[in-house]
């Protein structure tokens, strides 16, 4: 699995980055051309990769980490940097290559790749309740300052067509948030929430396109909600593997179940750390962390995509801190 920390600049750069990622001799050539001396240790979150932390790329590895989390400290201690040619050769042996990327702001940028007869690309689009995303972004805002500013600069190049909905609170009417292009400077909190608005707009555009089921996307796109993965992890994983024409092993299904049934939901430590967590509790953590005004602001920016994905707004149901009321509707997975 290759993690690509993609940040938006404009549609042309998105399209060019995606094309390079798939059309070079290997998916890693783009790294080599950017920096000839790059090694496996320069890849984003390399220490979480089973391939980089097990044989043959890491001869000293004590475990293959099959259906388990990699011991990142052991990997960092025992696995030397490897030449990118060696990494690319190992990737080429795999039956399937997974590329995880974020901030693809327009699904159309993948059309050229998806329709390329030389490639067999399928897209799994993972989404989450924007209020939970806002809670996470606010908690991690210091670590996302650069990313938030890049997202907002993207919005300046692609101004939205309509203003945000005017939000309401139980106490009356509030002013709608100012246009996103005016929010590039200011507090990290404002930038974090405004950036989320841009992300929601991009998601809404992509989802509307997927719902139209264009011929080039048909059979190649699957929409999955994070909440459905948490509630029924084995079923969700089986559905995703079936979409890809693969079969998950029992060990992998059990590992997935354990990953969302941990003892905590990320209150302490590195917010970007990969680990087992109490994901069901995390579903409703935003109700405790966000103020009423922050909830209203997020719903103003993200209302359209929330409606499309089946997330209830606070106005539609009682907002209970204990999370005893679901704030999302049940739905099946969507396939283009």
Automatic annotation (TrEMBL):
<dbReference type="GO" id="GO:0008459">
    <property type="term" value="F:chondroitin 6-sulfotransferase activity"/>
</dbReference>
<dbReference type="GO" id="GO:0006044">
    <property type="term" value="P:N-acetylglucosamine metabolic process"/>
</dbReference>
<dbReference type="GO" id="GO:0006790">
    <property type="term" value="P:sulfur compound metabolic process"/>
</dbReference>
<dbReference type="InterPro" id="IPR051135">
    <property type="entry name" value="Gal/GlcNAc/GalNAc_ST"/>
</dbReference>
<dbReference type="Pfam" id="PF00685">
    <property type="entry name" value="Sulfotransfer_1"/>
</dbReference>
<dbReference type="InterPro" id="IPR000863">
    <property type="entry name" value="Sulfotransferase_dom"/>
</dbReference>
<feature type="domain" description="Sulfotransferase">
    <location>
        <begin position="118"/>
        <end position="253"/>
    </location>
</feature>
<dbReference type="GO" id="GO:0001517">
    <property type="term" value="F:N-acetylglucosamine 6-O-sulfotransferase activity"/>
</dbReference>
<keyword id="KW-0808">Transferase</keyword>
<comment type="similarity">
    <text>Belongs to the sulfotransferase 1 family.</text>
</comment>
<protein>
    <recommendedName>
        <fullName>Sulfotransferase</fullName>
        <ecNumber>2.8.2.-</ecNumber>
    </recommendedName>
</protein>
<dbReference type="InterPro" id="IPR027417">
    <property type="entry name" value="P-loop_NTPase"/>
</dbReference>
């Amino acid at each position: 699995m290759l993690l690509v920390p993609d940040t938006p600049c404009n549609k042309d750069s998105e399209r060019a980055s995606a094309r390079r990622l798939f059309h070079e001799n290997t998916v890693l050539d783009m790294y080599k051309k950017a920096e000839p001396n790059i090694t496996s240790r320069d890849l984003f979150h390399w220490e979480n990769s089973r391939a980089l932390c097990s044989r043959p790329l890491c001869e000293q590895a004590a475990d293959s980490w099959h259906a388990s989390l990699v011991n990142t400290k052991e990997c960092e201690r025992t696995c030397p940097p490897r030449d990118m040619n060696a990494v690319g050769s190992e990737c080429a042996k795999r039956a399937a290559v997974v590329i995880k990327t974020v901030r693809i702001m327009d699904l159309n940028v993948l059309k050229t790749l998806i329709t390329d007869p030389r490639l067999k690309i399928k897209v799994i689009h993972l989404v989450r309740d924007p209020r939970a995303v806002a809670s996470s972004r606010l908690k991690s805002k210091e670590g996302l300052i650069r990313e938030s500013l890049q997202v907002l600069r993207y919005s300046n190049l692609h101004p939205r067509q309509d203003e945000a909905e005017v939000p309401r609170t139980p106490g009356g009417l509030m002013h709608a948030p100012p246009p996103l292009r005016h929010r590039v400077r200011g507090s990290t909190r404002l930038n974090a929430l405004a950036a989320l608005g841009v992300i929601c707009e991009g998601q809404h555009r992509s989802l509307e396109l997927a719902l139209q089921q264009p011929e080039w996307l048909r059979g190649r796109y699957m929409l999955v909600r994070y909440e459905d993965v948490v509630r029924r992890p084995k079923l969700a994983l089986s559905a995703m593997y079936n979409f890809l024409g693969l079969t998950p092993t029992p060990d992998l299904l059990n590992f997935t179940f354990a990953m969302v049934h941990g003892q905590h939901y990320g209150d302490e430590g590195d917010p970007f750390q990969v680990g087992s967590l109490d994901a069901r509790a995390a579903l409703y953590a935003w109700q405790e962390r966000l103020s009423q005004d922050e909830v209203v602001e997020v719903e103003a920016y993200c209302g359209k995509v929330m409606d499309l994905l089946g997330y209830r707004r606070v106005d539609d149901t009682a907002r209970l801190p204990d999370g005893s009321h679901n704030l999302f509707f049940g739905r099946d997975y969507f396939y283009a």
